[in-house]
Design brief:
about 170 residues, 7 helices, about 0% strand
């Protein structure tokens, strides 16, 4: 029965980690939204109210994420702390197998809906949904190009390449 408990705890932990994708994406969007507001160049009358709104959103998303993360860690920590003096390598192995099973199940038995991973899609949304961040990243990249231009030669930037992100350069 000990092995069953360790196995089920591993499965539950992995399912909860998979379930945390959405709260993590919300937290990332809120945090980058706050950064995007800070990077804006036109700091007019509404800047402070926009900043406060973005900060409240990011703070709430952080609180929710921490609360859910503690809920995920509790079963795992509880199983490992109580019988810690009797914990052997077989129990740990059963826990690891149980925690890997949901990831393998999703990888094998679910239909792939996109060529991009969830993390790639999130990164794409983070940059493309926040204009000021994209503009700041572009400035940093162009500055690096100018620093490498040792012989005072002008750089040539080619735009219009499919799926190369060149539309951001023309705006």
């Amino acid at each position: 029965t000990t092995y069953i408990i360790f196995f089920l705890t591993g499965v539950i932990t992995a399912v909860l980690i998979l379930w945390m994708k959405t709260p993590f994406a919300r937290l990332a969007m809120a945090a980058v939204g706050l950064l995007d507001t800070l990077l804006t160049e036109d700091k007019n009358d509404t800047f402070v109210s926009r900043l406060e709104s973005k900060m409240k959103t990011a703070l709430w998303q952080l609180i929710i994420f921490i609360f859910l993360s503690l809920g995920i860690l509790t079963p795992s920590i509880g199983v490992f702390i109580y019988p810690f003096h009797n914990l052997g390598s077989y129990e740990a192995l059963v826990y690891v197998v149980g925690s890997l099973l949901p990831f393998v199940w999703i990888g094998v038995f679910t239909k792939k809906t996109s060529d991009y991973s969830c993390l790639s899609q999130l990164l794409h949304r983070l940059v493309l949904s926040h204009y000021n961040l994209g503009r700041w990243l572009l400035k940093q990249q162009l500055r690096k190009i100018d620093e490498k231009d040792v012989d005072n030669q002008k750089s040539v930037i080619i735009t219009g390449l499919a799926r190369a992100g060149t539309t951001a350069l023309t705006k």
